[in-house]
What we know:
By secondary structure, the chain is an alpha/beta fold. It has helices at residues 40-47, 98-101, 150-167, 199-210, 226-233, 246-253, 270-277, 302-311, 324-340, 344-348, 358-361, and strands spanning 2-7, 10-17, 28-38, 59-61, 65-73, 85-88, 91-92, 114-116, 120-121, 128-132, 136-138, 191-195, 214-219, 237-240, 262-265, 285-288, 315-318, 349-353, 371-375. Strands 3, 5, 6, 10, 11, 18 and 19 form a seven-stranded mixed sheet that branches. α3 crosses α4 and α3 packs across α9. The chain is globular, with a radius of gyration of 21 Å. The site of zinc ion has 11 residues, from α2.
Amino acid sequence: MLAIGMYKGKPGAHKLDLPKPEITKPDEVLIKVKQAGVDGTDFNMIKHNLQDPAEGQDKIVMGHEMVGVVEAVGNDVKTIAVGDTVVLTVRRGCGICQPCLHNQSDMCMTGLYTERGIHKKDGFFTEYIVDQEQYAIKVPNDVADMAVFTEPLSIAEKGVEQIRLIQSRMPWACEHPNHSFDSQDWGKCKTALVVGAGPLGILATALLRLADVFTYVVDIVQEDSPKVHLVKHMGANYIDGRGKSAKELVDFCCTPTDNLDIVFEASGAAVTAVELINYMSRSSIYVMTGIPRQEIRTELDAAQLVRQIVRNNQVVVGSVNSNRSHFEMALKHIPQIEKRFSGMLKEMITHRFGLADHDRIFDLSDTSRLKTVIDITG
Ligand code: BGC
Ligand code: ZN
């Protein structure tokens, strides 16, 4: 069967021909992959030649976003049946730490986890996958069409969850008690700045707007770009960040009396990401999700940074990966996003390819892409 992967010491994406996997344990499921999503991590793996196969292997199958249909199940599988549409989580826990032992490998404390398609475990750019039942999540019928967005949306879900969990320290964030961060209507009377209008920034914006957060999105593309169309379609405001300093970005969205409650960093632009900390509002939260890959140095006034974080009760929190609960949240939100911002997920898919198109998928000179989906028909 066809797959796309990376070889140790051989830059670029390569076509692989692999044997079809088989169920060998009673708790396993065999899944025929229907669609796989390509994201910034995949592009960074190619661009920065980051291949990380399992110990003793010379290659890794790429891909960590998928949706597929179950073709066979082991004897002990109870929650999933042949014919079900499913998505798979990405991380496989270390088996040692308490978070991993309690289905929270996204918070692994040893770092000894693996990630399918990224870190020491083969991924999903292939025709068939075998995995354990515990990592497969059944997709409701009304979501199947857009379920390839479940994994990237789950990353945004975890980020928003962190914001709500941490800011529930402050029930009186605004004058309405039923608008506190842990209430149903938490987003009303809150303002957010999303940095980066790539797939993650757009999906985070969708969740914030679904909760009625007043949202600004900054990127470095011109107003007539498809990204900006999507931002506006969700009722968010676009800030063209080209040539603007971090201070100018924040001045654009928030006056001193207009609190910036949330910053959601989804660009990985390290210098801006750090500089923005200086312009956080009092008692606000900043969640970082973008992962910079190169060394980037900058100068900053360390004393000022520490002083203002302390004096203003600010929280800067990193958020990586996601667990089953975030996938479940994403599956619940996909139809809501589709309903409220009709057609937006479909509009996000700018490029579609097959598994045989590995060269075109990773054409790094094409900057027009937002979401790339691989349709796997074979
Ligand atoms: C994936 C996460 C993963 C992270 C770091 C992201 O692209 O969506 O699941 O944890 O990369 O490897
Ligand atoms: Zn762990």
